[in-house]
């Protein structure tokens, strides 16, 4: 059994959660931590607590921020945890309250339940329901999302984004209040030398994947992202004020999605999903979430079906708006969604190039902030990490050719 951090705050949280779930005399019987490369800003523990008297058990997930001051000086640990805590203590309750006022009986089901939080620095902690124990599964890091997964994800983001549009239309001051409390982590990241330098290195890596005799057209269009240009584009995308802005999941690669499946003799169909890890939640165009997950996790076959998936998204979005008593065509016309794809899908393209390198890195080669590097070494270390360069090149070229074909590059 892994050892939980020695923390009076964590001990009290576990005691409170246990008692609220009918476990009066609890003991931790299991504690398993995350793999290397998961949970970049903290540790994740799968914990089982048991009642010493009745043997009743409760399974929870604990997300605990890194205590190490060297790490906290190097990375925005506190801000990230504050952002996720803010989602569970302010954003999600505001959506749930609004749904109740609109007489929507169905619970919001796109996020896990949060049982307790602590915001004391440097012991920011969240205690969440353990979705794995109720049948949800992690999607394999290197696997490619197929049609059924892509459809379900588009539907889920349609629900999430629908609440923002409806709340802003009905209660604009309430939406403004919760939106102003969201921390734009990406704006802070792009202003850091480490991340901006990393983006420049990623852009060089992308350019090295081109096959000149086949990719001349794309190479020419991609020049606008060379050097520091990619940094400027990224900054513009994450700081631009947008009339149709919503509260975004923000960190949309498949590691931050859990799926439940229906199994039959010949198939395995994803029927439910949860969006996890809200540390990079931000406010922006819905297309930021959609393009990020699609380009980071899927393939050319799915890219070519983009228009159909946008209709899947819009149908889910519209259904959510109608349940909340709002007019989807008035609040976010489908034509505007398509216009946004032309403008904001560059965000998904850039994030895919960043994340694909991480996704295609073997677990043993993944980097953790606990590896002991200082901030001045991190750029070089990230640049030299081993990954599947052939698969990276293939997938990046598919994204860029698709972006060129839809005239969004």
According to DSSP, the number of beta strands is: 10
CATH architect. name: Alpha-Beta Complex
Strand order of the largest sheet: 1-2-3-5-4
Distance between the termini: 49 Å
Count of discrete alpha- or pi-helical segments spanning 4 or more residues? 16
Please give the domain count.
Answer: 1
Helix content: 40-55%
**Biggest sheet layout:** 5 strands, antiparallel
Which parts are unreliable, with pLDDT below 50 for 5 consecutive residues or more?
A: none
Estimate what percentage of residues fall within beta strands: 5-15%
Mean pLDDT: 92
SSE order:
HEEEHHEEEHHHHHHEEEEHHHHHHH
CATH fold naming? Aminoglycoside 3'-phosphotransferase, Chain: A, domain 2
The class by helix and strand makeup works out as: alpha+beta
Indicate the radius of gyration in whole angstroms: 21 Å
Kindly provide the name of the CATH class.
Alpha Beta
What best-fitting shape do the alpha-carbon axes yield? globular
Described by its quaternary structure, the protein is single chain
Describe it for me?
By secondary structure, the chain is an alpha+beta fold. It has a single domain, classed as Aminoglycoside 3'-phosphotransferase, Chain: A, domain 2 (Alpha-Beta Complex), CATH 3.90.1200. 52% of the residues lie in helices and 15% in strands. It contains 16 helices and ten strands. It has a five-stranded antiparallel beta sheet, sandwiched between helices. A three-stranded antiparallel beta sheet has the order 6-8-9. Helix 4 packs across helix 5 and helix 7 packs parallel to helix 15. 37% of the residues are buried. This is CHK kinase-like domain-containing protein. It comes from Zophobas morio.
């Amino acid at each position: 059994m892994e050892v939980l951090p020695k923390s009076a705050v964590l001990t009290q949280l576990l005691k409170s959660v246990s008692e609220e779930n009918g476990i009066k005399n609890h003991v931790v019987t299991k504690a398993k931590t995350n793999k290397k490369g998961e949970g970049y800003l903290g540790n994740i523990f799968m914990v089982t607590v048991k009642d010493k008297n009745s043997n009743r058990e409760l399974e929870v997930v604990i997300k605990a921020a890194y205590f190490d001051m060297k790490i906290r000086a190097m990375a925005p640990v506190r801000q990230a945890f504050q952002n996720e805590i803010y989602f569970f203590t302010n954003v999600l309750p505001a959506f749930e309250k609004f749904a109740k006022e609109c007489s929507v009986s169905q619970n919001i089901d796109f996020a896990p339940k949060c049982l307790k939080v602590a915001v004391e620095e440097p012991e920011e902690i969240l205690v969440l329901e353990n979705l794995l124990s109720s049948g949800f599964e992690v999607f394999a890091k290197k696997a490619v999302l197929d049609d059924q997964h892509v459809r379900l994800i588009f539907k889920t983001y349609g629900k999430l984004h629908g609440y923002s549009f409806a709340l802003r239309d009905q209660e604009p001051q309430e939406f403004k209040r919760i939106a102003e409390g969201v921390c734009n982590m990406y704006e802070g990241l792009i202003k850091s030398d480490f991340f901006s330098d990393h983006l420049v290195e990623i852009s060089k890596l992308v350019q090295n994947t081109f096959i000149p005799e086949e990719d001349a057209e794309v190479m020419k269009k991609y020049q606008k992202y060379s050097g520091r240009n990619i940094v400027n584009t990224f900054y513009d995308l994450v700081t631009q004020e947008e009339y149709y802005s919503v509260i975004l999941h923000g960190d949309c690669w498949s590691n931050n999605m859990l799926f439940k499946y229906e199994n039959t003799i010949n198939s395995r169909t994803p029927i439910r999903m949860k969006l996890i890890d809200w540390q990079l939640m931000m406010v922006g165009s819905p297309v930021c979430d959609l393009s990020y997950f699609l380009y980071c996790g899927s393939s050319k076959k799915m890219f070519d079906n983009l228009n159909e998936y946008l209709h899947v998204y819009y149908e889910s979005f519209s259904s959510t708006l109608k349940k909340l008593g709002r007019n989807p065509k008035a609040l976010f016309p489908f034509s505007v969604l398509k216009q946004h794809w032309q403008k904001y899908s560059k965000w998904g393209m850039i994030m895919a190039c960043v994340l694909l390198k991480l996704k295609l890195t073997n677990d043993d080669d993944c980097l953790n902030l606990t590896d002991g590097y200082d901030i001045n070494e991190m750029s070089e270390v990230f640049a030299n990490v081993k990954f599947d360069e052939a698969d990276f090149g293939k997938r990046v070229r598919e994204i860029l050719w698709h972006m060129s074909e839809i005239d969004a590059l």
